[in-house]
Design a protein that fits this description.
The protein contains 15 helices and 28 strands. One of its GO terms (biological process) is carbohydrate metabolic process.
């Protein structure tokens, strides 16, 4: 934020020292069902995109420094909070500090919006007297554009191009500009409440609607309580399952029903590495697993909204089916690199957008058809126009399933005949047949049955390594891949088939990474860099040290089979998939042990990122990750079901 307009009192008071941000798992999530913010243990909002998940950020310190945008509100001179929690089954965050002079609570939330997004921060004195300090620095367009700030009444208004942000400052709070930051100094005593309100709106609007913070808090808590009342789960993991479903709800874009893979971008899959992707989009691949998780949890309305988003997004020529879409179904998701951002713990490049949108990933056809089948089983009717769309998708897949593609893991190298892609083509044919039989709607059922048989024979002949006795990643290869667990998850083969059992055992042994599961062979699982206590900015690591840590060397390091340099952590969803496969093959106790191990590495608020580094005991990748929480929910329900024949 630029210094406030000349002549404001106290502009030169104080100097702002940029705090060190914490580990990925140190962050909490709040949101309003259209965007989300990440807040560290130190009380700093380090990531927020407005007005949507996929909009440019106004706070990007997560991927850089304080000057790239953040808002810290905490006791003056304090470090991380002493305790934090969500209030009940909500997304209202409470953080508490206990100081030598007293204790204080900061309550952070984003009301579900009517017109504009708002971030509310309420400071409440609990005991004694505590000196507080707020440091707000806005920087629009991913930390690239500092706004001009002016004062109007009780507001500080920051404007840059099409964006404006209005900070409502409570009466009696001393506020001034220092080093481009708006600083608020004040004291809270026991029982005193001080509320700050930050509102975004288009810059051409001259005023912002007023909001009563306490009324907004009550309404927000009430809405979450009403929503959680639909929760349906009877098992020993009630809290992690419901928190995962709350997280999925938080990642849903309410106007359309689309669910983003994560609210963040460019958080690294290995510290110092180059696998830094933007996940603020909706993947078709997640569709059937997400629908299953929502329906199992009792949230039929969200499941129906997700299905409607899916149908709108994929409408059109089946040849143009994409792997991902924007939250409203947009097709243009251009990948760019933000060279002005240093990246989380110097993990570069920082990427926004995602080039995988242009890849051929044939498995998504199977995911879409499986979603429609699950919806029908749940009582969501099959409309005739949807049936026409399904027939068009199947018509395309019938003629193209034999082609190579980039696959589930979005390889940026040569196309291959991935076993998972073929298995999901089988799923498409199998579920299409089942849908036709269940609805009686007109369809070339015999052609679909013939395709199902042909794909099955092809996978068994070419995707199975007879020497090793396991399914492999792609035809002609020998690499293991956790996605081959879908041979049992999808019903492609029965769980007692020896090929299934050997594949499950091979994945379990060959892709083990400290008790967790890697995605596939061929990506080095090196030790991550960075200091245990926070960001490794300015620690003097050389390129050689980075290369030894599994990140890129002087020229980016050797390129792996997936077309990328460097390494990554264990992929958490794969660990849940293995647990599902262990249950299917009669090893429920071992599945429960694995499930418990993965749930235990969630942060103190129950949130999980994409990956885990067992060597450094830290989370990696974008946070929180919908794919991980979806897998957690589905495995928890699988474990809660009685064994067959019991």
């Amino acid at each position: 934020m630029q210094p406030e307009a000349p002549g404001l009192p106290g502009q030169a008071e104080g100097r702002i020292i940029a705090p060190m941000s914490g580990r990925i798992e140190d962050y909490a999530l709040i949101g309003d069902l259209q965007t989300a913010a990440l807040i560290g243990r130190d009380g700093s909002v380090d990531w927020l995109c407005l007005p949507r998940f996929d909009s440019p950020s106004c706070f990007a310190a997560l991927l850089g420094e304080q000057r790239h945008g953040s808002w810290r509100l905490a006791p003056a001179g304090a470090g991380p909070c002493d305790a934090r929690r969500y209030r009940g089954d909500s997304l209202v965050l409470e953080s508490e500090w206990h100081t030598a002079t007293g204790s204080v609570r900061v309550t952070d939330f984003m009301p579900q919006r009517d017109k504009v997004p708002r971030l509310v921060r309420i400071v409440e004195g609990l005991t004694g007297s505590v000196e507080m300090r707020g440091e707000l620095r806005l920087s629009f367009n991913y930390g690239r554009i500092d706004p001009w700030v002016r004062r109007t009444g009780h507001h500080r208004v920051a404007v840059a191009g099409p964006d404006s942000a209005w900070l409502r400052v409570p009466p009696g709070v001393h506020t001034y500009g220092a080093d481009g930051t708006t600083v608020s100094d004040f004291t809270v005593t026991a029982g005193r409440r001080v509320a700050f309100l930050l509102t975004w709106q288009p810059s051409h609007l001259q005023s912002t609607p007023n909001t009563d913070p306490d009324q907004a808090l009550a309404a927000t808590l009430g809405r979450w309580q009403d929503w959680a009342g639909s929760f349906r789960y009877r098992g020993e993991w009630r809290d992690p399952v419901l928190r995962s479903l709350i997280t999925l709800k938080a990642l849903a874009y309410a106007p359309t029903g689309g669910i983003v893979a994560a609210p963040t971008a460019a958080l690294p899959e290995l510290i110092g590495g180059t696998r830094n992707w933007d996940y603020r989009f909706c993947w078709l691949r997640d569709s059937s697993m997400t629908l299953s998780a929502l329906l199992r949890g009792g949230f039929r309305e969200e499941a129906a909204a997700w299905r409607q988003w899916l149908l709108r997004a994929i409408a059109g020529d089946p040849r143009d089916l994409q792997t991902m879409y924007g939250v409203a179904g947009e097709r243009v998701v251009t990948e760019t690199e933000a060279g002005w951002l240093p990246g989380y713990e110097e993990s570069r490049p920082v990427r926004f957008g995602n080039a995988a949108v242009a890849q051929l990933q044939l498995d998504v056809y199977g995911e879409v058809v499986d979603t429609l089948h699950l919806a029908l089983l749940a009582g969501i009717p099959m409309e005739r126009h949807v049936w026409g769309l399904l027939r068009a998708l199947m018509g395309y897949l019938e003629h193209h399933w034999q082609e190579p593609d980039e696959g589930l893991w979005e390889f940026r190298s040569a196309r291959r005949h991935f076993v998972h892609s073929k298995v999901m083509a089988w799923v498409a044919a199998d579920r299409a047949v089942k849908l036709a039989e269940a609805t009686g709607l007109p369809a070339p059922v015999e052609r679909w049955r013939a395709m199902r048989d042909a794909v099955h024979a092809d996978v068994c002949a070419n995707g199975y390594d007879r020497r090793r006795g396991t399914f492999v990643q792609h035809y002609g290869g020998t690499e293991l891949d956790a996605a081959t667990l879908f041979v049992v998850k999808s019903g492609f083969l029965p769980p007692d088939d020896p090929r299934v059992v050997r594949t499950v055992d091979a994945v379990r042994a060959g892709l083990d990474h400290g008790g967790f599961v890697r995605r596939y062979n061929g990506v080095r699982q090196g030790r991550s860099g960075g200091r245990a206590g926070g960001r490794a900015r300015g620690d003097g690591r050389t390129e050689a040290v980075r290369a030894a840590a599994g990140g890129p060397g002087p020229a980016g390091g050797p390129v792996r089979a997936d077309g990328l340099p460097g390494g990554e952590g264990a992929f958490l969803a794969c660990s849940f998939w293995l647990a599902d496969a262990l249950v299917a093959t009669g090893r429920r106790d071992e599945a429960k042990e694995l499930f418990t191990r993965v749930v235990a590495i969630a942060n103190d608020l129950g949130l999980l990122a994409e990956e885990w580094d067992p060597l450094e005991s830290r989370q990696l990748g974008n946070m929180p990750q919908a794919f991980t929480h979806v897998a957690l929910v589905n495995t928890a329900f699988t474990l809660a079901e009685p064994p067959p024949g019991s």
